[in-house]
Prior knowledge:
Elements: E1 2-7, H1 14-23, E2 28-30, H2 31-41, H3 43-53, H4 66-73, H5 77-99, E3 106-110, H6 114-117, E4 125-130, H7 133-144, H8 148-155, H9 161-167, E5 170-173, H10 178-195
Helix pairs in contact: 2-3, 2-5, 3-5
Bound molecules: adenosine-5'-triphosphate.
Amino acid sequence: MKIVGLTGGMGSGKTTVCNLFLEKGVPVYNSDLRAKWLMNHSDALKHEIQLLLGSDAYTVSGELNRGFVSNKIFQDNALLTQINNFVHPAVFNDFELWKNQQKTPFVLKESAILFESGGNLFCNYVIAVVGDLETRIKRVMERDKLSREEILSRMQHQWKDPQRIEKSNFVIYNQGHISELKEQVDKVYQEILAKT
Ligand code: ATP
């Protein structure tokens, strides 16, 4: 079974593209969602995060205090690196377990920070979803009700499109209508199937 990484900056349309692959029967592992799930459910990970950030990292009912954690780690690169050093191996192991249960010629591993985390090294191919920066900011502002400044500050920690394009096997341009996205997904899907 081949592992196909799918990456792109905030608001580029990764999840939208993954949903189009899902419609074709391709299993999708969403690394960012699983990371959040593990941070709420893995006792080992919760313990490490609390040691690093203090007990305020979790609410009294044991849920990750996302506002507190985001504020801390996006203002301090060293803390961000340390958190990533805990979370990335946990996600890696979780993905391996999930992948072993799939039975298709290839699976998709979606991650906003696939290259940044080194996850691309474990993929057979990588698809980058790219798009104009202003369109991406507008989409995220509408979707998450975040300010432009908050979005730009999070994007600072991510690679830029030219870097992703250079290192990817396939590029999907999400600039226009969803129908154009669908055409590109069909093409990439066929090309990957031909390689499996
Ligand atoms: P993030 O990394 O921030 O989670 P993402 O890369 O997964 O984002 P999506 O959630 O797929 O991006 O898309 C961002 C928003 O833009 C969503 O609300 C989505 O519905 C919308 N969107 C994506 N592509 C298009 C498009 N071609 N036309 C209109 N809206 C779009």
